[in-house]
């Protein structure tokens, strides 16, 4: 799944997006002759993954996640409560310095204060598309490296405003985001709604991976990576199971 | 999955066969663009399931099952020992009395004594084909009704000699069978080698099904059906995982 491992520092980002796998020829949702969830062989089908839901779906997930938050905060609830943050961010994208380098540089600022929060180059390591014939939506697992870079010089090629409701639960973050993209201040902007699940602590993920199956550590440590991935997949499936019709 | 439920008495037969899903056009093993085991949508693909393995594969499975039998009989082994029976059977098939009725009548005799052991009409209720891209073989789950019928009159249309090594383990039977078929005493016979897993006690299966999720029974009883199916699927997967190349 992971094709390249770039040198240098950086954090591994592991995320699942909820969306629709579309047949590129028909523009319709992919149809495969299988009854249950399955992983597509990479590059075997002429399909694309689109993670844009309707505003109604966005509200539906917002309401589900808010209910979960309320429910999980009640005394006597067994699992950890969901934590909630409302973020207003602006991403600007720049061409990389080197022409060899195809990955854009992203600067993320707090919308209100203008403070730079992150300056990153995101390098795609691999995707897995998961086809879910019993559900209204499919999902995609993406693994990327996020490499900190110096602030870029030049003009941004794309600006993306993100109104993000971010829910933290145990080792995961669930982000429900309204994205408004524009290529210039005068061009017409495009509004998208996205739902992502992310492993909250990439360092922890890598540390569990390094101890996977190690006979010199405790059983809990030895199994922690598999347990984390199991929980990640479970959470992604719960999101997908709650998806209704309303994917664009 | 089950399309019809015939009236009258009879036992439900639930079995998994190991074999190859073949594309009817190419005659080759089916190729789907997925990475993991999945269930095919019935009647969506022009494929057939062939459960015939080479003699070498047959010997391979025989050796695995004999080793398991020896291993499971050792003192201190945690699960129940495998029981083994070597059966020599002859099936003869007859056209049904009624022309409305497409299901043949099968008479099973002990080869040596000629004693009639069973006189059955097998009614197919449904199949599920399981495609296993990571394994050398696929598998098919079949659910049938076996209805006892009076001994038929007339001439047999097909005779099938079965040399069967039957291993019983907990709630399942694993049958490794060499089948020699002939349509008449003078015609050339065909030899096939098959591997099947069967739920040993259909009555128990139905009794657990009737208590599935019932709040008035114990948790063990309530979950017994799911547990039985889980073990059935696990056992089928273990057989498929042990399949090598050698399917015809």
From TrEMBL, chains A, B:
Entry's localization field: Nucleus
Record keywords: Hydrolase, mRNA capping, mRNA processing, Nucleus
Domain of life, per lineage: Eukaryota
Cofactor section: Mg(2+)
GO biological process terms, semicolon-separated: 7-methylguanosine mRNA capping
GO cellular-component term (any): mRNA capping enzyme complex
InterPro entries, per database record: Cet1/Ctl1, CYTH-like_dom_sf, mRNA_triPase_Cet1, mRNA_triPase_Cet1_sf
An MF annotation (GO) of this entry: mRNA 5'-triphosphate monophosphatase activity
Record field: catalytic activity: a 5'-end triphospho-ribonucleoside in mRNA + H2O = a 5'-end diphospho-ribonucleoside in mRNA + phosphate + H(+)
Keyword Nucleus: yes
SUPFAM superfamilies noted in UniProt: CYTH-like phosphatases (SSF55154)
Domain mRNA triphosphatase Cet1-like positions: 3-199
Enzyme's top EC category: hydrolase
Catalytic activity, EC: 3.6.1.74
Endpoints of the signal sequence: none
PANTHER family named among the record's database cross-references: POLYNUCLEOTIDE 5'-TRIPHOSPHATASE CTL1-RELATED (PTHR28118:SF1), POLYNUCLEOTIDE 5'-TRIPHOSPHATASE-RELATED (PTHR28118)
Family, as annotated: Belongs to the fungal TPase family.
Free-text function comment from the UniProt entry: First step of mRNA capping. Converts the 5'-triphosphate end of a nascent mRNA chain into a diphosphate end.
Record's subunit section: Heterodimer. The mRNA-capping enzyme is composed of two separate chains alpha and beta, respectively a mRNA guanylyltransferase and an mRNA 5'-triphosphate monophosphatase.
Name assigned to this protein: mRNA-capping enzyme subunit beta
Record organism: Steccherinum ochraceum
Gene name for this UniProt entry: CET1
